[in-house]
Amino acid sequence: MQKGALVYEGKAKQLFLTPDPEVLYVQYKNSATAFNGEKKEEIEGKAQLNNQITALLFERLKEQGIPSHFIEQLSPTEQLVRKVDIIPLEVVVRNIAAGSLAKRLGFDEGQPLKQPLVEFYYKDDALGDPLLTDAHIALLELVSESEKQSLEHLARQINTALQEIFVSIGVTLVDFKVEFGRTADGEILLADEISPDTCRLWDKETNQKLDKDVFRRNLGNLTDGYSIILSRLGGNSQ
Ligand code: C5P
């Protein structure tokens, strides 16, 4: 499909128009960012790893009855998606304490949670993506109460499906972030990406971090872990 004008550029992806107004062309980038863009690096190979991992995961989720904006992978670094208006909420699901939850509540990293925790953050770089309470969500009027409940329900379904996928490849799904969007006819769809940039993934045997924490904490070569995830999912990282 022909690549038209650039319509959006984020930290990790560029979106281009296509001849079909309902379809966008996504180009993944090699940029890695953390701490709201304060830490930034170009990492050769990251674009193709995240594009392919996202494509495989969105395909697997679809098989499990969870549709997304994903249409098809076009090349190692490009995919076609349905155009949606992104709802500016980051929905985070946690199975094990880590990251900002460990910091905020004083849990040890690695402490399993009694049940999965769903949190909403306001997707706003200028505000530093703050954690939202239900009252904040109501005040912001980004979604109705029933839409908020469906997002939470969907996020829990995605967690169950992803846990099953990752457990089968010897990986622990610690936590992840998803985003949703509205299609032109108002349908809410899973959107954006699901990759080691947006999940915490630990090797089940060794607890080796196979995700962006390697970059955030300077723990070594980022793409080593991403390549492990892609090849265990059945993809080809070359
Ligand atoms: O930093 P925190 O512990 O809140 O992150 C929870 C999960 O959400 C992690 O898997 C992280 O990679 C992901 N996340 C993200 N984009 C953000 C914030 C968090 O993908 N802007």
From TrEMBL:
Single Gene Ontology BP annotation: cobalamin biosynthetic process
For whether the record's keyword set contains Amino-acid biosynthesis, the answer is: no
User: According to its UniProt record, in which pathway does this protein act?
Assistant: Purine metabolism; IMP biosynthesis via de novo pathway; 5-amino-1-(5-phospho-D-ribosyl)imidazole-4-carboxamide from 5-amino-1-(5-phospho-D-ribosyl)imidazole-4-carboxylate: step 1/2
Q: What is this protein called?
A: Phosphoribosylaminoimidazole-succinocarboxamide synthase
Q: What class of enzyme is it?
A: ligase
Which UniProt keywords are listed?
ATP-binding, Ligase, Nucleotide-binding, Purine biosynthesis
Q: Return any one Pfam family short name.
A: SAICAR_synt
Q: Which SUPFAM superfamilies match?
A: SAICAR synthase-like
- The organism is Chryseomicrobium excrementi
Per the UniProt entry, the Enzyme Commission number(s) are: 6.3.2.6
Recorded catalytic activity of this chain's protein:
5-amino-1-(5-phospho-D-ribosyl)imidazole-4-carboxylate + L-aspartate + ATP = (2S)-2-[5-amino-1-(5-phospho-beta-D-ribosyl)imidazole-4-carboxamido]succinate + ADP + phosphate + 2 H(+)
Q: Which family does it belong to?
A: Belongs to the SAICAR synthetase family.
Q: SAICAR synthetase/ADE2 N-terminal domain spans which residues? A: 7-230
Which domain of life does this protein belong to? Bacteria
Chain's gene name = purC
State a single Gene Ontology molecular function: phosphoribosylaminoimidazolesuccinocarboxamide synthase activity
User: Matching InterPro entries, A to Z?
Assistant: SAICAR_synt/ADE2_N, SAICAR_synt_PurC, SAICAR_synth, SAICAR_synthetase, SAICAR_synthetase_CS
Is ATP-binding included in the keywords of this UniProt record? yes
